[in-house]
């Protein structure tokens, strides 16, 4: 991996992180082997839809056999493989097989469509793409066929579960294990997706060393051990359910991961009871939904000790309702796929738990709060959050121009979040400087959506901003200026156009407003601030509240 492709920690930092014991010199492949040797018969993965219960020995053997089959198909160390799977057991078989041979999963979400998938495959030069045949009423084989036609590097499509159609069934790939040289602990393990604020998503290179630290660091803070049962509700590939402490943290601890096929209480609550789930993680809209549903449920939720809530700001009022409704401890999580993760501690005073977004995992996480000129603000004042540390990347993958903007010269990541630090050292998220919409935890880069709208022949200019939403926190509002002479156009035409360009549904504008001009700042730039204010004045949340509780449009993920 060249320096340019993935900026790494300077040697003196790497040495420091090793000497401090944060980087343990482990890889994911070896980690699973050790767990399988230590407790082969303990259940690692429960997939309730398929009815499978894989022990650690099962997962280890499957990963080995799949690794052998992938190798014999020419997939080798350093190759990129786009993995787009729902919450099914094969997700773990695939990623551990890839970890073992040192090929890099590129984590896509089930909601991604042609626009995103083609980009991930092209940008990474992916040699393979792994999908489920069908999920949530969508046929991923059709998406794979289009992708393969578009992307010349793509040699293989593997289909997990269901009829593979013209492609190869994942279950046919496995072979007798062979010997192979695995990756080193400081090699890249995978490419994660950034929430992004630019036209195309950026890829986040994570190493075995740094990611594994974030796992065991999280486990200590969230009290995850071999008795923990983690319910994976959010899409498994997202950084929050994957590692905070998530399914990989749980596997590191020797616990059990239960895959939840959908986030609705009707689906999750019976699983909590049946499997004795002790810990799970949700985005705020789902946490609200669960808190509302819990008092009326017939299911026994008493095994649940900890509910992690993060991905977007959780309001204090909602946070206060968690323990009374669900009988468990709330842990707020403020994290990012680029690295830094903050948690409120289980023994923090209630006031801290409900009013802050926690503090960093590591004593070596460096936090700076600065003004627009990168000068540190006075303690307790609000400013931009910059961070550097043992599990925060030093640059995006293959993106030198972005890196020059997103990182300071001495390697601090510009999170784009506006925060303040309390006297107790806890972080409170006060806002955001990045041009992004956080739709119930799902991150949407305004520029990406704007570019798609601008491709419409009748559109002269477009600006996309967040508008407040009582349930999702924010939703997507597009302001559009039509070309002079373009006939009248309906909002739905713009929405349909964007959807048909193959953009994930959560990025399609919830509202489209046609205007003649955009408000401007003093220097003549478009004032997104004024547009946001306009959206807030005229949007859905300014209307009188609906008479009955809104049925929740299940937010699939906090993400990209
Ligand atoms: C998580 O990761 P990403 O990469 O999808 O998004 C990161 C961004 C943060 O920079 C911040 O803007 C926002 O999401 N965010 C929060 C938050 N947690 C994340 N904003 C306010 N309050 C919070 N609690 O979203 C993520 C990754 C790991 C663990 C948890 C969340």
From TrEMBL:
Chain segments carrying region Disordered: 528-560
EC main group: transferase
GO molecular function, one term: acid-thiol ligase activity
Domain AMP-binding enzyme C-terminal: 448-525
This protein's record includes keyword Iron: no
Protein keywords: ATP-binding, Ligase, Nucleotide-binding, Nucleotidyltransferase, Transferase
UniProt cross-references to InterPro entries, sorted A to Z: AMP-bd_C, AMP-bd_C_sf, AMP-binding_CS, AMP-dep_synth/lig_dom, ATP-dep_AMP-bd_enzyme, DHB_AMP_lig
Domain AMP-dependent synthetase/ligase: 33-397
Enzyme Commission (EC) number: 2.7.7.58
Pathway the protein acts in: Siderophore biosynthesis
Biased segments, Low complexity type: 534-543
Bias type Pro residues, positions: 544-560
Family designation: Belongs to the ATP-dependent AMP-binding enzyme family.
PANTHER family for this protein: LONG-CHAIN-FATTY-ACID--COA LIGASE, NONRIBOSOMAL PEPTIDE SYNTHASE PES1 (EUROFUNG)-RELATED
The name this protein goes by in its record: (2,3-dihydroxybenzoyl)adenylate synthase
Higher taxonomy: Bacteria, Bacillati, Actinomycetota, Actinomycetes, Kitasatosporales
């Amino acid at each position: 991996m060249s320096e340019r492709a993935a900026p790494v920690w300077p040697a003196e930092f790497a040495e420091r992180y090793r000497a401090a014991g944060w980087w343990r010199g482990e890889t994911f492949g070896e980690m699973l082997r050790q767990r399988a040797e230590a407790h082969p018969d303990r259940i690692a993965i429960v997939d309730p839809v398929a009815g499978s219960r894989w022990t650690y020995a099962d997962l280890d053997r499957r990963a080995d056999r799949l690794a052998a089959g992938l190798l014999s198909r020419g997939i080798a160390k350093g190759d990129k493989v786009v993995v787009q799977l729902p919450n099914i057991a094969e997700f773990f078989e695939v990623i551990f097989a890839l970890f073992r041979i040192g090929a890099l999963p590129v984590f896509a979400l089930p909601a991604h469509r042609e626009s995103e998938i083609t980009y991930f495959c092209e940008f990474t030069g992916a040699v393979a793409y792994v999908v489920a045949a069908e999920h949530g009423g969508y046929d991923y084989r059709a998406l794979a066929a289009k992708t393969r036609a578009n992307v010349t590097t793509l040699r293989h499509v593997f289909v997990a579960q269901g009829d593979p159609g013209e492609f190869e069934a994942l279950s046919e790939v496995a072979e007798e294990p062979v010997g192979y040289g695995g990756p080193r602990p400081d090699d890249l393990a995978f490419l994660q997706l950034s929430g992004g604020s630019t036209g195309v998503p950026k890829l986040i290179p994570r190493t075995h060393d740094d990611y594994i630290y974030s796992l065991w660091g999280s486990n200590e803070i969230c009290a995850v051990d071999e008795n923990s049962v983690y319910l994976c509700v959010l899409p498994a590939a997202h950084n929050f359910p994957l590692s905070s402490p998530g399914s990989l943290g749980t596997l590191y601890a020797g616990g059990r991961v239960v895959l939840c096929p959908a986030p609705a209480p009707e689906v999750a609550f019976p699983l909590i009871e049946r499997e004795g789930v002790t810990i799970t993680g949700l985005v705020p809209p789902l946490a609200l939904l669960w808190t509302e549903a819990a008092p009326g449920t017939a299911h026994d939720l008493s095994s649940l000790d900890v509910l992690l809530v993060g991905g977007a700001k959780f309001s204090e009022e909602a946070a206060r309702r968690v323990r009374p409704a669900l009988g468990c401890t709330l842990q707020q999580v403020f994290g990012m796929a680029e690295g830094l993760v903050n948690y409120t501690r289980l023994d923090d005073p209630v006031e801290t738990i409900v009013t802050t977004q926690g503090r960093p995992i590591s004593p070596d996480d460096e936090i700076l709060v600065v003004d627009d000129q990168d000068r540190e603000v006075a303690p307790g004042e609000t400013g931009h959050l910059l961070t550097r540390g043992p599990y925060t990347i030093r640059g995006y993958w293959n993106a030198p121009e972005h890196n020059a903007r997103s990182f300071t010269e001495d390697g601090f990541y510009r999170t784009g979040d506006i925060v303040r630090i309390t006297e107790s050292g806890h972080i409170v998220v006060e806002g955001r400087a990045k041009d992004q919409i956080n739709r119930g935890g799902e991150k949407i880069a305004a520029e990406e959506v704007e570019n798609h709208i601008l491709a419409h022949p009748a559109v002269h200019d477009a600006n996309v901003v967040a508008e407040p939403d009582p349930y999702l926190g924010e939703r997507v509002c597009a302001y559009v200026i039509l070309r002079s002479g373009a006939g009248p156009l309906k909002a739905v035409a713009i929405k349909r156009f964007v959807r048909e360009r193959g953009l994930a549904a959560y990025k399609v504008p919830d509202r489209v407003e046609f205007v003649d001009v955009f408000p401007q700042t003093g220097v003549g730039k478009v004032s997104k601030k004024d547009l946001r204010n306009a959206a807030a004045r005229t949007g859905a949340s300014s209307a009188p509240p609906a008479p009955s509780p809104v049925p929740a449009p299940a937010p699939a993920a906090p993400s990209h």
